[in-house]
Each structure stands twice: as C-alpha cells, then as structure tokens.
Amino acid sequence: MTSHTIYAVREWMYKRVDENTGEITKEFKAGLCQFMEVITNQPLGREQGIRTCPCLKCRNEKFLKIEIVCRHLYNRGFTPGYYIWLSHGKDYVDRPGNICRGRKVVEINNGRYVGESSRRPIIDENNIDRMVREAFPEYVKSSNVVEKPNPDPRRFFEMLDADNHPIYEGFKVGHSPLSAATRMIGIKIDFNLSEDCVDAIADFFCDYLPKENLAPHSYYAIQKLVSGLGLPYQMIDVCRDNCMIFWREDENLEFCRFCGKERFQVSTGRTRIPYQRMWYLPITDILKRLYQSDRTASGMRWHGEYQFTGDISHPSDAEAWKHFQYKYPDFAREMRNVYFGLCTDGFNPFGKRGRKYSLWPVIVTPYNLPPTLCMKREFLFLAILVPGPNHPRRALDVFLKPLISELQMLWHEGV
Fold first, then answer.
1. Where's the Transposase-associated domain (predicted)?
2. For a Cys staple, 279 with which of 173, 178, 248, 385, CB 3.0–4.6 Å?
3. What are the helix and strand counts (H, E) for the chain?
4. Strand partners, 234
5. Rounded to an integer, what distance in angstroms lies between the CA atom of residue 316 and that of residue 308?
6. What is the pLDDT, as a whole number, of residue 100?
C-alpha cells in the first residue's frame, strides 16, 4: 500500500453510518476489526491493554483500555483526517514487517471487541535498538568495523553495546541497561521526580538484583548512558541589559558594544561567571531525527499528500500558506521541505505566589505533520530559553539571533 492509495483504502473510517438505514455499515465494522488487530498486537496494547483513543471526542489525547477504545470508535467514529495511524504505530506505507500478526479478530458486536490469540504476535520486543540506530544512521552500515572509531561513531558503538547486554545473565530478553535508563528518565519526567529520588530508586533496585548486574545505580549513571541520544545545546552569554549576545564574532568581547557594561561578574575563582546567559537548542539536529525515523519521516510529507476537504483544519489549508507556495514554487515543489511555526510566551516558573520571575521559552513546531500530531507536546520543540528574572520587552529579537541565523542557513544550504 503506497501513500497515494492510503486515503482510498481507508475511506471506510468515515463511512460509519448508512445514510439510508442509519445502521453501522459492514465496511466500517470490517475496517474497525483491522484497526483493533493492529493496536492490540503492539507492545503497549499487548502488555498493558491500553492505547490512545482516536475517536471523535478523545482525539488521541487519552489512554484507555482497548475495549473502551473499540466502543468509542463504534459509537462515535474516528477523529477527522486520521487516515494515517501515526499515533498507533502505522506509517504511510504498510510494510510486511510492520503488520501485526497473531491475534485473530472474531467480530465487532455492538461495539464490543471480541478476539482470540492464535499464536504469539510477531512484534519487535526491543525498540531501544531501533532508537539507537535511528539516532546514528550514518554508522549502522559500518558497525562491523575492526579499527578503533573516532569520537562521533564511538558513541554509537557504546550505546549499541549497552543495548546488547542484559542487566544480568539470564534476565528477560530485551531488557538492557540502556532500556532501564531510558525508562527511568521517562518516569522522572512524568512524575517530576528529583535527582535524589531517582538515586534512591536506582540504588534500591540494584540492591535487590544479583550482585553481578549492569543496572544503572544512580542518576548520574543513567544520564551517562542516555547522553549519546541527546541533542546538542549552546549556552550563550548575554549583556545584563539585553543589548546583545556574546556570540560568533562577539564571542570574545569583555564588554557590551552598546552600553559598555562588563560581561562577567567580579569573582576570585578560576571560572568566570557571566551576568546573564541564554540557552539555544539548534533545530538542525531535530530535523535530522525527524527524517531518520521512518515513523516520523512519512508524517513530514503529510501536508503535501492529503486532500483539502473544504474546512480549514490545518495551516496548509489557509490562504497564507498557498500564497507562500505561489511565491516560492521551488520550495513548495519538494514536500519534504519543512514549514515551521514559531511562538513564545513568558511565564513565572515559581507560580503566582512565588517570587517575580519572567522566563520566556521559544517553541518551534513543524507544520508538515497532520493536525493530530503537530500540536502534540512531543513535536513542540524548545529552541531558545530566554532567561529571567526580568521581562525581555523589546530585546526579544536579540535572543532570536541564533535561531534566525540557523533558519537562513537551512533556507539557502539545507541539511
């Protein structure tokens, strides 16, 4: 199935009710069986029995039991435009290796999902290996080299080695030190755990595992394991009055070119401390990751492959988008080119009752993705963090300088 026929093949998703009889169509029931087969045989559905619900009301924002997901879809139908099952592990192209087998769907009876397991589903048990290989695709083909690699590919081999070893001999296949570290990082983020708490949890598990185990024993060890998968960032010194940033040609200046104030605080230590500093996260590496993964690479072409239905449901339906494509036809001709949205807003990280502080994150999101994804938290990328405690006011453009420079480079040279 190619991306050009995907919409025709899945027309059943929006033909739920027969206009003449008012009953659920056989076509929709058969298609719903196919969809339930897909999500049931994936790891999250098979192990925990839950998946995101793509019904008209939930819109892939809630994790529900599979039986409830089926009932919602049967009674409400699918959220508009969800032809590509990206939130449920399906790309534009259905490849034989991606098709879930093993769970035989018997029937959809009044919105109730009934099925039986005929054999163990053919599922990749370890997605960590895939994640590592997608992060370092340029080194995958040469992973059998004998000579000592240079620092860049060495990170790849270290990550792959951490993924290939079980936590201890005889442990469950697919559970490696790297998978444990990534799982713990996810738990820390989801529940806002402190570093001391993660240290205590890691130490607790190590105490109950066999003595010769490879599980990370501290938050530092966890960070060290997953650091190779992280994205680079830059810390750039800023004038205390927000006049300029000490970057590129101004990187070695000691005083502001506009107000003449000192860059560094008076200190007796060896490390020089600037009065103010901003954080910049380059977006080029983010774009590489989006196109290195086959799950997101296909979604980045969505804006050029779907058909306008008459209702504006995506920025690509608007006149401004069409005007831009008319003005730059060469850019519009390649659907893999990226259309970014940029936004920022200040907030007080200490809450209303905390001390006065204004922190301004600058967020970019690729509008190539379908509506169900481009506004999801996973695709809202932090590009700049403007420091506080004061409001940047008219100096916000000063902090945007690295991002604008990188966008100009991407426009003229690409990646």
1. 10-89
2. 385
3. 17, 10
4. 280
5. 9
6. 37
Distance, CA of 219 to CA of 240 (rounded, Å): 34
DSSP 366: E
The pLDDT score that the predictor gives to residue 234 is: 93
- 332 and 405 co-located in one domain: yes
- Residues 304, 340 within the same domain: yes
Q: Structurally, how many domains does the chain consist of?
A: 3
Is the same domain home to 395 and 256? Answer: yes
Residue with tokens 């087998």: 101
Q: What is the pLDDT of residues 260-295, one digit of tens each?
A: 999 999 988 888 999 999 999 999 988 988 887 777
Question: In whole angstroms, what is the distance from residue 236 CA to residue 279 CA?
Answer: 6
CB distance 140 to 129 below 8 Å: no
Give yes or no: residues 348 and 210 share one domain: no
Burial grade of 211 (CB within 10 A; 0-12, 13-18, 19 or more): exposed
Domain boundary (117, 142, 176) is at 117
Domain-embedded: residue 1? no
Tokens of 230: 């992280």
Dihedral pair phi/psi, residue 412, rounded to 5°: -90, -35
CA pair distance 174, 179, nearest whole angstrom: 8
* Nearest CA among 138, 132, 313 for reference residue 228: 132
